[in-house]
Amino acid sequence: MSSIAEKLQVVNKNIANASVAAGRDPAQVRLLAVSKTFDADAVLAAVTAGQRAFGENYLQEALDKIAALRVMAPEAMLEWHFIGPIQSNKTRPIAENFDWVHTIDRERIAQRLSEQRPAGMAPLNVCIQVNISAEASKSGVVPAEAAALAHVVSGLPGLRLRGLMAIPAPADAATEQRAAFRQVRLLQEQLQQQGLALDTLSMGMSGDMPQAIAEGATMVRIGSAIFGQRPPIHS
Ligand SMILES: *Cc1c(COP(=O)(O)O)cnc(C)c1O
To answer: Is 21 exposed, middle or buried (0-12, 13-18, 19+ CB in 10 A)?
Structure first.
């Protein structure tokens, strides 16, 4: 078994290779280390190896880890990204403790996050989650409704709309994976043509990262390739 530091190094190398293969500058693709279900010691191992941005899905687990890391690595400027489904009664701790939210899929959640973002903090960076493979998931706005939501979100003072996020349905063939990621990129380009200044495409996970980078991902969300297999069910 290789260590978290070694696996992180391999993932960073794979991101660089996929970027170069796609004719892109590797510096345009950021790694978000998805640490859900792994403990604060695992996050600390990644921090020690140089990683700064972490993605979490489960709010209470995330809040505990954020607090633990403030004590364990007080000097490290960590960036916390919320990437799980959001319940509307849980927006306040998200607005108060995270730097990014990738899973905006309705106006009400965006409005609450904006109102609840503390005045002394920079606006919360957000992505709109797009449901590209409608049958596979209930999360995300359908592509036809993405533009309307994006324009509302871009006007909220406590938020800064950065781009789109997607989790396409699992597909075995690389061409299928790419087709789904391409739809997200084309949607992002439409929004940019409508005047929205978007710089982030959050797409690609451990199983489909090179395909996402080939289609323009600027942030890949990688969990198991860094931290190992997760238990199948999280409670
Ligand atoms: C768990 C998760 C990931 C990471 O998945 P891996 O397959 O472990 O890389 C990425 N994005 C989201 C939204 C997740 O929930």
So the answer is: exposed
Number of domains comprising the chain: 1
79 token code pair: 């960036």
Is there a domain that residue 28 lies in?
yes
Tens of pLDDT along the chain (235 residues) come to: 689 999 999 999 999 999 999 999 999 999 999 999 999 999 999 999 999 999 999 999 999 999 999 999 999 999 999 999 999 999 999 999 999 999 999 999 999 999 999 999 999 999 999 999 866 567 899 999 999 999 999 999 999 999 999 999 888 899 999 999 999 999 999 999 999 999 999 999 999 999 999 999 999 999 999 999 997 765 4
Q: Which atom of ligand 1 is nearest to the CA of 103?
A: 13
Q: Measured in angstroms, how far is the CA atom of residue 153 from the centroid of ligand 1? A: 24
Residue 110's SS3 state is helix
Q: Whose CA is nearest to atom 10 of ligand 1?
A: 221
> From the CA of 32, how far away is ligand 1's center (Å)?
10
- Domain-located, residue 235: no
Please tell me the pTM assigned to this model: 0.96
Establish if 232 belongs to a structural domain: no
Full residue range of the structural domain in which residue 86 is found:
4-227
CATH number at residue 32: 3.20.20.10
Q: Evaluate whether residue 233 is within a structural domain.
A: no
Q: How far apart are CA 108 and CA 143, in angstroms?
A: 18
